[in-house]
Amino acid sequence: MSIFSRLFKVGQAQASAIVDKFEDPIRMTEQGIRDLKNDFQQAQISLAQVKGIAIRTRKDSENNKRLAADYERKAMLLLKNGQNGGLDVAEAERLATEALLKKEELSKESVRLATEAQRHEQMAGQLQSNVTKIKSTITSYENDLITLKARAKTAASTRKINEQLARIDGSGTIAMLEKMKAKVEEDESLSQAYGDMVSADHSVDDEINAALGSGKTSTASEHLLELKKKMGLE
Length: 234
Prior knowledge:
Layout: H1 3-84, H2 89-170, H3 173-201, H4 203-213, H5 217-231
Helix pairs in contact: 1-2
């Protein structure tokens, strides 16, 4: 196995390991996000309920406070009526005392409800903090999931490429190319050999034709006449 093959195998193994590593975390993260979203919805419902109780309790406290103030105002009117002669003084003081008792009762209830409302408001604040934390965690998990999926996709693509490269090197493609190259070189050599043979068969004719075509006819004729004269044939 060539060094490239070994490198491809190593890359393939690493890519496969990365994919295997991220497949389960992806599913786990998706499930975790779904669970957190369910918790988030439940926490929102609880937060709304506690906030509603706090608001209603605060309103009841303020309402009792207003009623207490109203009874105090009525007690003052009763006393004034007693002083002005509009009402018997003793009866005015009795009714004023009853009004003040109502005022005291409502004031205590107002304080109690205010304390209860404050406790519900603190609870709502804690729930709000938890809801915000869950929401932030969901956002963080969703971002991690996006990154995780991108890395898994890249790893899968890398593995696929490495597998293709490994198949190319190991499937004998290079050997086939070398074989084709040898065949082409053999055909080229054979073609050149036939060409040389053709050149050898036609070299004389080519020389004669070349001589005739190049204007050497007159020179050859002159040489022929000189040769005949030299031989005494003319």
